[in-house]
UniProtKB/TrEMBL annotation:
Keywords: Apoplast, Secreted, Signal. It comes from the Eukaryota. It comes from Sesamum alatum. It is found in: Secreted, Extracellular space, Apoplast. InterPro entries: EXORDIUM-like. The keyword Secreted applies. GO terms for cellular component: apoplast. The lineage of its organism: Eukaryota, Viridiplantae, Streptophyta, Embryophyta, Tracheophyta. It holds the Pfam family Phi_1. This is Protein EXORDIUM-like 3.
Length: 386
């Protein structure tokens, strides 16, 4: 295994883990404490500032872990906060706008040319599962689909521009695909060995994937019997770019795993719920495949962020590029009007009981909303005010 071209401490790789997904449960709680602590201190006798601060320490600790609903929610069993999380704690929305989130453009490239997604199917995949994912990707720029549509969802992503004013491409299609059904790098992958899988795909002796650093998105999809570093503990997918020292090229890529067997209660939420959180009820997946239906929203999350921040130097919030908060991080867990905390928002329910919020070419999908920097809140095609 080759080291990165510029060696960095292990925590630097946290950029691969969308802390906007798994740490937001702490972010909102931390930001809510100042108000709660002020209310509490109003009932206490006057005291010196230091004494008052010390007296609130136990309350602070308890509130940090047991305060109420949160935004950008996913039921992570273990999560640790970082500086960016504290900064954006309460500014993430209960589906309403926020004047505190300052998503900025940092002058890096975005994907303005026609986007080609190159799926790498790692492990054992059923044909029916591949069809669901292929149709979702094909629906991103499909014309004349029934509203609310996946194409309508992508319109928000297209609002983002580069320094010349060029918008994100409106064309997203599937390119060549690669199958790795024999687990060439094993059934347990690290974040760096994920890049090795991509290297194998672009350098294969037969039918290698094209090398397309300008507008290609390399999508590594692992089957339900493959574990990837931090999967289920604090990540369901991540994106970054490949290191030339490993792959030979700088290519934007994403990994998304099928959690059906490993952790459906975490990464397949709301189609599955964790047993340790009482009161939550799972909803029926729209394509009768809990793992793959859940992957769709994560795939959407990663493609949206790859388009707007492919080299991690374009669109993100926060001052720390190691922990950027990107356009999908800001809306994790929000699928409809009113969403926030553990409430997904208003979704659609069909006669067969399936839950979804947008249509593809022929199928239905449940896809999280993304941040609209022009209006400063999360938006989606199924919003009631559209």
């Amino acid at each position: 295994m080759h080291p990165p071209p510029h060696p960095t401490p292990a925590p630097k790789f946290e950029i691969l883990v969308h802390r906007g997904e798994f740490l937001a449960i702490y972010k909102h709680r931390f930001a809510s404490l100042s108000h709660l602590a002020t209310s509490h201190s109003a009932m206490m006798p006057p005291a010196q500032p230091l004494t008052a601060s010390l007296s609130l320490a136990p309350l602070f600790f308890l509130l940090f872990f047991f305060s109420g609903p949160v935004v950008c929610w996913r039921p992570w069993p273990n999560a640790q906060p970082n500086s960016t999380d504290f900064l954006f704690g309460g500014s993430k929305k209960y589906e309403g706008s926020s004047e505190f989130v300052k998503l900025k453009y940092h002058m890096g490239p975005v994907l303005t040319a026609n986007i080609t997604v190159y799926p790498i199917w790692y492990g054992k995949w059923q044909s029916s599962q591949k069809r669901i994912i292929r149709e979702f990707i094909g629906s991103i720029s499909a014309p004349d689909t029934k509203a609310p549509s996946v194409a309508g969802w992508w319109k928000t992503v297209r609002l983002y521009t580069d320094q010349t004013g060029a918008n994100i491409s409106g064309t997203v299609h599937i390119g060549e695909e690669k199958n790795d059904r024999f687990y060439s790098h094993g059934k347990s992958l690290t974040r760096l060995s994920v890049q090795s899988v991509i290297k194998s795909a672009v350098s294969a002796s037969t039918r290698p994937l094209p090398v397309n650093p300008k507008s290609g998105v390399y999508l590594l999809l692992t089957s339900d019997d493959v574990y990837v570093q931090d999967f289920c503990n604090n990540v369901c997918g991540f994106h970054y770019f490949t290191f030339p020292s490993i792959v030979g090229y700088t290519l934007p890529y994403a990994w998304v795993g099928n959690s059906a067997k490993l952790c459906p209660g975490v990464c397949a939420y709301p189609f599955a719920v964790p047993g340790y959180i009482p009161g939550l009820k799972a909803v029926k997946s729209p394509n009768d495949d809990v793992g793959v239906d859940a992957m769709i929203s994560v795939i959407a999350h990663e493609i949206a962020e790859l388009a707007t921040n492919p080299l991690v130097n374009a669109w993100y919030a926060g001052q720390d590029p190691v922990f950027p908060v990107e356009i999908a991080d800001l809306c994790e867990g929000i699928y409809g009007t009113g969403g926030g905390g553990s409430y997904t928002g208003q979704m659609l329910n069909d006669k067969d009981g399936a839950t979804y919020n947008m249509y593809g070419i022929r199928r239905r999908f449940l896809v999280q909303w993304v941040w609209n920097h022009l209006v400063n809140y999360c938006t989606g095609p199924n919003a009631l005010d559209q």
